[in-house]
Amino acid sequence: MRAFRLTSFETAPMLENLDKPRPGPGEALVKIAACGLNFADLLMMSGKYQDTPKPPFTMGLEIAGTVEALGPNTDGPAPGTRVAVFAGQGGLAEYGTFSAERLIPIPDEMPFEQAAGFLIAYGTSHLALGHRAQLRSGERLLVLGAAGGVGLTAVETGAKMGAEVIACARGPEKLKVAEQAGAIHLIDSDTTDIREAVRALGGADVVYDAVGGDQFKAAMRATNPGGRLIPIGFASGEVPQIPANILLVKNLSVIGLYWGGYLKFAPEILTQSLTELFDLYRAGGLHPHIGARFTLEDADKALDLLKARKSTGKVVVTLN
Predict the structure, then answer these.
(1) Contact 253, 228 (CB under 8 A)
(2) Which of 66, 145, 191, 223 is most buried (CB neighbours < 10 A)?
(3) pTM of the predicted model, to two decimals?
(4) CA Rg, the chain, in Å?
(5) Are 43 and 9 in contact, with CB atoms under 8 Å apart?
């Protein structure tokens, strides 16, 4: 089988031919149909992600496909079941073996491409806004990086929860996508002073930040007293240093959210969140946006697009 592998942090990943894996006890063999890319994949390439495996490894955190076989004495979705899984690695390959207990059956009507980019993006926004920030209907939600993989789901999820959504993104094309997802106010981060624009709208009650850097600093100063800020990523490359005096004076809360961490300390919360999200999808309440599709042969180009921050929604690699 073919797999897109990283052999060291000093060299670029590349396609290799490997033996088709066999599932061991507790594992399932999945024929992979699609792999959703994430900013974490870029961090893994340089060893900067918090859960980076030791090279060599096959890249790709989340996948969708069909169960082909179960390992010995393993309970799990039966062969032929369509599933998605947050695997942490192994997604950019034609086959993979994954923990059977992590496999999540997906709705029959959900295309593999959507399923491959659903878990992390929607799961992150749903947990961040609902469970962590306790977003309330009528509150003003500012989303930084609003047209990206997770940002766009925050716009859609926040709007579904009754928030007045302010979308901040680079350029009119990205802002149009955010508007279609439910944003009411649009801020072009390339041309507009974020702090002043948000203040003119009455300030933010909750900030969802996938960007970091100067945008986080501007948003913090435009957050209303008693507001909550949720850093969930640093696409700008800069991790903001948060001045405690501003938190004190404005009674602000900064609430971290690492979606994958819930698998280790509170998997039942993650499972319940995904159950609610799939129910919403079946009811027609969620509309995943695939901004770009690539084949496995062009996985490097898919990662380059993600790195350039030119994509909207999810970037997906398909496998046939």
Answers:
(1) yes
(2) 145
(3) 0.94
(4) 20
(5) no
- Indicate the Cα dihedral angle 120, 237, 199, 124, nearest 10°: 10
> How many CA atoms are closer than 13 Å to the CA of 241, on its beta-carbon side?
0
Question: What is the C-alpha separation between 207 and 253, in angstroms, rounded?
Answer: 10
Hey, what are 87's tokens? 């695997």
Residue whose C-alpha is closest to residue 53's, from 6, 97, 12, 14: 6
Helix ranges restricted to H, the chain: 39-45, 112-116, 119-126, 151-160, 172-180, 194-200, 213-221, 244-250, 262-265, 267-282, 299-308
Q: Where are the alpha helices (DSSP H) in 201-286?
A: 213-221, 244-250, 262-265, 267-282
Residue 57 structure tokens = 């490894």
| Separation of alpha carbons 242 and 221, rounded Å | 11
CA–centroid distance for 236 within its chain:
16
Residue with tokens 């792999």: 35
Residue count of the chain: 320
Tokens representing residue 58 in the block: 């096959």
- End-to-end, the C-alpha distance of the chain in Å comes to 12
